[in-house]
Write a structure and sequence with these properties.
Elements (H helix, E strand, L loop, with lengths): L1 H6 L10 H10 L3 H17 L3 H18 L3
Length: 71
């Protein structure tokens, strides 16, 4: 839910609320909303949530650890 909220790439509802789910499904009838959520989701994956970004984050963290310990 955090990523969906931060990236505005979907609709969130309480898992125990059939009414909220129905409301979100109804909202998705809006073509403009679907397009916006889709574009935002694609951008999130391309820019933040992919292996290339994760690789760079991991390598930078490993480098910092190595620097701290003289490796």
């Amino acid at each position: 839910a955090r990523i969906v909220d931060e990236c505005d790439c979907g609709l969130i509802y309480a898992s125990d609320s059939a009414e909220e789910l129905a409301s979100r499904i109804e909202a998705l009838r809006d073509l403009g909303l679907r397009r916006t959520l889709g574009v935002n989701g694609r951008q999130a994956v391309e820019q933040r949530y992919n292996w290339e970004v994760d690789e760079q984050t991991l390598l930078a963290s490993a480098q910092q650890l190595g620097d701290r310990h003289g490796c």
